[in-house]
C-alpha cells in the first residue's frame, strides 16, 4: 500500500517548482522586454533613487545597464555624445580617453540631491592613464565605446575617435605615483609650474591641503623660489602704485619680502590689510 504524501511536502515541492520557474522566467522576460516586463521589478531591485539629472529615466534600468554585464560606457555615450568631444580634448578632462568605465566615478542611486560624480583616483591609477596620456596613446574601452557609438548613431561622430588622444580618500604612494596629476590640474596650479609636475611630492589625492607643511621663516628672502609676481608688477602699475602704497620706493619686483607678510599677500608691512587690485 502506497504511503500518502504529506501536504507539507507537496507545498514545499510547489514552492520549489515555482521558484525554479521564476528563476528561469524572470531573466528571460527581462532580456526580451526590459525592466518593465516584470511588474514591480525595478522598484524592488533598485538600490536607491536616481539623481535629478537622470530622474527622467524612471525605472528604465536598461537605459544604463547592459544585461548580465551591468553599466557600460556605450549606453552613457548614447546620451552624452555631444559632450564626449569636449571631455577628451580639454586638458582637465582628457583622462576620460583612457578610463574605459563611466561607473567608476559617476555613481548613481545615491539620491536626487547628489550629483552622480564621485571622483575615484584609483580608477585613474588602474587605467594606466598617466603614461598613456603623456605619450598620447590612450588605451582601452573608451575608444572602443566611441567606435560602437559611431556604429549606433551614424557618421555624426565618425571623427570623434580620432580626437581621443573617490574623492576624499588618498591613494597608496605606489598607486599615486602612476598618476599624471599635472596633466589634469595644470590650470589649477597656483605654483605657475615653478615647482615642476611632481605634485605627489607634496599633495595627497584626497585633498589639496599639504599635511605637515610649514611656511619658511617670515624673515626669509627667498620668496621667488615658489612665488611669482602678478603681471601688474611687471608694468608701470608697480612703479606708480605699489611702491608708493608700501613706501618701498626702491623695491625690485623679486623683493616680495620688503612689502608682503607671509600670512597673506594683502597683509602689507607697516600698513596692515590692504587690497587695491
TrEMBL record:
Superkingdom of source: Bacteria
InterPro entries linked: Multihaem_cyt_sf
Matching Gene3D superfamilies: Cytochrome C3
Protein name from the UniProt record: Cytochrome c family protein
